[in-house]
Write a structure and sequence with these properties.
Number of helices: 15
Distance between the termini: 88 Å
CATH topology of the largest domain: hpI Integrase, Chain A
CATH architecture of the largest domain: Orthogonal Bundle
Largest sheet: 3 strands, antiparallel
Structural class: mainly alpha
CATH class of the largest domain: Mainly Alpha
Strand order of the largest sheet: 1-2-5
Number of strands: 9
Order of helices and strands: EEEEEHHHHHHHHEEEEHHHHHHH
CATH superfamily of the largest domain: Intergrase catalytic core
Shape: elongated
Length: 388
């Protein structure tokens, strides 16, 4: 039976106008209830000193309840929705590493602030939530945007489930600025050669594959001996912890050409170690832990020769940067790294260190053109002399 339209009961409590009304809620067993609730509407000051002036605010608040656009399930708390519905959905649909990141972000930053009913969160409330997270945590701008992205996904899923009606309240939220992210590192070709000259096996060949193919950590762990045919490494799988899955992104699966020096290293490695299941395998026959290799072998070895370890991804960025310096087009670099979007390659992987020689050549050409076309006395050559 449809509920009759309600107008609620307005009353003043101290310096505030409050509204008592009947809500609609759904218990975990599906039972629909209509609990009585109270809500603070506004401070009793300025244009809202009289009850008549506040009545319009009460009608606006009650309108979704009166016209039936509020679903009973939208009364569940944000915490209950995320833990009972959204996180299980993310675990089914996302990569295990992505789900793990969502779960940790939820526990650390959002769960303590998620006690209100889903339908009570407005854009202003969610923006204040992000500002509060920023105020209490030393987070980067990128991390704060990731938190907003997670929140947006939660409310988008609630809309898709029919629990909330659009629009998504996170859509207009402006994520606050955090501290600047530390600049990421790309190994130079000289650094890579020095590393390979001091590292023992299997860290040496593992590092060489990372440096000259740009494979991610999970893809390195997922390589099998038959993924190498003497000319190509076929990227078919990625392993995160104990989870075996497809490589990241739509273009993640693919073949990467193997340069001759790397081919010789791989062939010598295969002869020496004869791996059976994985190209780089542990003593138990499973995929090697690249974190363990970095911590126990690579870091101490590099420290002895005065070199610093910047992580596995610095090899991937190094490959992009070194190819760029050689004049390889960004589209080709994108294909080698198997990025879905060339913008990712340009913005996050190609590092501009110093002045590009092509930029110097281009400016020299401009200088020559100016000197040729403008005769002495016009002022142009005099400026060039001063600049030089």
């Amino acid at each position: 039976m449809a509920r009759t339209r309600q107008s609620g009961y307005l009353y003043r409590k101290g310096s505030k106008w409050c509204l008592r009304y009947y809500d609609v809620a759904q218990d975990p067993d599906g039972t629909i209830r209509h609990p009585q609730r109270s809500k603070v509407l506004v401070e009793a000051e300025g244009p809202y000193r009289s009850k008549k002036a506040v009545q319009l605010l009460a009608e606006e608040f009650l309108r979704p309840l009166n016209i039936g656009t509020v679903t009973p399930s939208s009364g569940m708390s944000l915490k209950r929705f995320v833990e009972d519905l959204y996180l299980p959905f993310a675990e089914r649909q996302k990569r295990p590493s992505t789900y793990d990141g969502y779960r940790k972000m939820w526990k650390v930053h959002l769960e303590p602030r998620a006690g209100r009913p889903l339908r009570d969160y407005r854009t202003v409330d969610l923006e204040q939530m992000l500002n509060n997270i920023r105020a209490k945590n030393d987070l980067t701008t990128t991390t704060l945007r990731h938190v907003k992205h997670l929140l947006s996904g939660v409310f988008r899923y609630a809309i898709r489930c029919g629990i909330l009606n659009p629009p998504n309240p996170v859509r207009e939220v402006c994520a606050p600025e955090g501290r600047s992210s530390e600049d990421t590192y790309a190994y130079s070709l000289d650094e890579i050669v020095r590393m390979l000259g001091v590292l023992p096996e299997p860290a040496r060949t593992l590092s060489a594959v990372a440096a000259f193919t740009g494979l991610r950590r999970g893809e390195l762990r997922g390589l099998k001996p038959d993924d190498y045919d003497g000319q190509l490494l076929i990227v078919r799988r990625s392993i995160w912890r104990k989870h075996v899955g497809a490589p990241k992104g739509k273009r993640g699966t693919g073949a990467v050409p193997v340069i001759a020096p790397l081919a010789r290293m791989i062939e010598q490695y295969l002869l020496q170690y004869g791996p059976k299941t994985y190209l780089f395998e542990s003593m138990s026959g499973g995929p090697v832990s690249v974190e363990y290799i970095a911590r126990e072998v690579i870091r101490p070895t590099l420290r002895k020769v005065g070199m610093e370890w910047h992580g596995w991804h610095a090899f991937r960025r190094g490959l992009a940067t070194n190819l760029h310096v050689l004049g390889v087009s960004d589209i080709v670099i994108q294909a080698i790294l198997r990025h879905s979007d060339v913008a990712v390659t340009r913005q996050s992987y190609i590092k501009h260190t110093g002045v590009d020689e092509r930029s110097v050549a281009a400016m020299k050409a401009l200088e020559s053109l100016i000197c040729t076309k403008h005769a002495p006395g016009t002022g142009i050559q005099e400026i060039l002399v001063v600049v030089q």
